[in-house]
Structures are given as structure tokens and as C-alpha cells.
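Methods — Computational structure assignment.
A single polypeptide chain was analysed. Its primary sequence is given first, followed by the predicted tertiary structure written as C-alpha cells.
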Amino acid sequence: IYQRAIAFTVEIYQVSKSFPKEESYGLTSQIRRAATSVPLNIAEGSGNTSEKEFKRFLEIALRSDYEVLACLEIALRLSYCSQVDFERLCTKANEIA
């Protein structure tokens, strides 16, 4: 899952490159931070010796994954991404979740 989350984050960065420049500090930043949060929280949680703490970090990663889905929906509705990219990335986000 960690490796898939890394690859997914790279794809989010690539797709969000085409978002309007005025979104640099808005949706572009938000979707990138949320996507990056997924593998970062998996990595941070895996460094814990406590299973309870590891689960907590996985829950944070899951919430970030859902945040990416919401950002993708907004990007689609604003025509910042194509339907094809939206569906592909949503499928990957759901697989990671």
C-alpha cells in the first residue's frame, strides 16, 4: 500500500500541474498535501512499536485519502481535470483506502 500511495502521489502532482495558476495556494496545494499525507503517515506509523499508534497513523492516512477524493471531485466540477483522469485517480484512491 505504501508503494501504491507513493506512485499515487506522483500522479496527483502530475495531474495538478495543469490546474490554473491561481489555484497554486488553493486546490493545487490542498490536493498535493492530502496525497502526500497518505504515504507519509503510513511511513511514520510503521516506525512505531505500538500497534495502537500504527493504527492511528493509518487512520490519518485514510482520512487524507478521502480528502484527495473530495479534491478530485472539486477539480472535475471546475474542469481542472478530465473525466478519464478523475476516474483513474479515484479508482487508485479507493484501492489504497
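Note: Residues 66 and 93 are 8 Å apart (CA to CA).
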